[in-house]
């Protein structure tokens, strides 16, 4: 009897990560979920096991703690056969750079970039043991242009885009397929929802709920797509934005983002 295969999802306690967990469980995939403490992971794991009959394991810790991250990954690889990695964990925010604490800046870089690269690097040899395996990486539409008043977040997502597209080419022919997903706005929490609603029609352009985004992302990943942009309006927006000069695009997007600051107070 072959050992059971697992999907590992980071940032799985809420929002898009939680929806990935639900939809993967509905496919009959066993799960390894990672999230910060306090995310009620026991309840989530129990409900997924009962509803879908899959095995769900979870680990609650801060992924920016490199020692804990490496120890956890070693434990996972020693006990479970992971053939699908979903790099979903990430944080952002909107504020002037001078109003953003050094701790916040460091947290974004540590989680969005450093931890994601460590997870991926450690799991690649493990994933390559399978005839076919997958890595899905959640970037953002923000990865396509620099943005004032967000600065660090879009830069981190641009890194994710560049790193994983390069990695896909490097792994070409190995049976390990890498996809990058570029979601538009997502109502992941009350603050984000308030900000999007406050922007009116422009804020809602390209808006999809988490179940739609997750379904599109999973379908695209298992179809071995390189780039996945959920939503017709987001794909149109991306095409149009590519035609604009960088200076104009930067001013246009940054002007809209600047309005978000009033919703962070």
Short précis:
The protein has 265 residues and is of the alpha/beta class. The protein contains 10 helices and 7 strands. 51% of the residues lie in helices and 14% in strands.
Strand content: 5-15%
Please write the string of helix (H) and strand (E) elements: EHEHEHEHEHEHHHEHH
* Overall body shape: globular
How would you write the strand order of the largest sheet?
Answer: 3-2-1-4-5-6-7
| Contiguous uncertain segments of 5+ residues | 189-201
CATH class: Alpha Beta
Main sheet, how many strands, which sense, barrel?
A: 7 strands, parallel
Quickly give the structural class. alpha/beta
Oligomer: single chain
CATH superfamily: NAD(P)-binding Rossmann-like Domain
**At the third CATH level, what is the topology name?**
Rossmann fold
What does this entry look like structurally?
This is SDR family NAD(P)-dependent oxidoreductase. The protein is α/β, with parallel strands linked by helices and 265 residues long. It has one domain (5-263): Rossmann fold. Helix content is 51%, strand content 14%. A 7-stranded parallel beta sheet has the order 3-2-1-4-5-6-7, with helices on both faces. The chain is globular, with a radius of gyration of 18 Å. The termini are far apart. Residues 189-201 have low confidence and may be disordered.
């Amino acid at each position: 009897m072959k050992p059971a295969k697992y999907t590992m999802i980071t940032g799985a306690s809420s929002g898009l990560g939680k929806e990935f967990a639900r939809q993967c469980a509905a496919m009959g995939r066993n799960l390894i979920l990672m999230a910060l403490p306090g995310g009620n992971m026991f309840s989530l794991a129990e409900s997924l096991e009962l509803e879908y009959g899959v095995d769900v394991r979870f680990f609650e810790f801060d992924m920016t703690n490199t020692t804990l991250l490496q120890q956890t990954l070693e434990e996972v690889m020693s006990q479970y056969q992971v053939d699908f990695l979903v790099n979903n964990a990430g944080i952002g925010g909107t504020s002037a750079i001078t109003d953003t604490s050094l701790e916040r800046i460091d947290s974004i870089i540590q989680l969005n970039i450093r931890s994601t690269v460590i997870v991926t690097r450690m799991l690649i040899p493990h994933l390559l043991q399978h005839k076919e395996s997958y890595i899905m990486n959640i970037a953002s539409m923000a990865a396509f242009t620099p943005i004032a008043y967000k600065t660090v977040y879009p830069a981190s997502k641009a890194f994710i885009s560049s790193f994983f597209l390069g990695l896909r080419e490097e792994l070409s022919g190995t049976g390990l397929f890498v996809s990058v997903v570029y979601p538009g706005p997502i109502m992941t929490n009350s603050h984000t929802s308030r900000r999007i609603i406050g922007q009116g029609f422009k804020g809602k352009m390209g808006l999809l709920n988490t179940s739609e985004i997750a379904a599109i992302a999973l379908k695209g990943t298992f179809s071995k797509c390189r780039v996945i942009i959920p939503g017709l309006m987001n794909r149109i927006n991306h095409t149009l934005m590519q035609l604009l000069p960088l200076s104009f695009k930067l001013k246009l997007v940054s002007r809209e983002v600047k309005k978000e600051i009033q919703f962070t107070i």
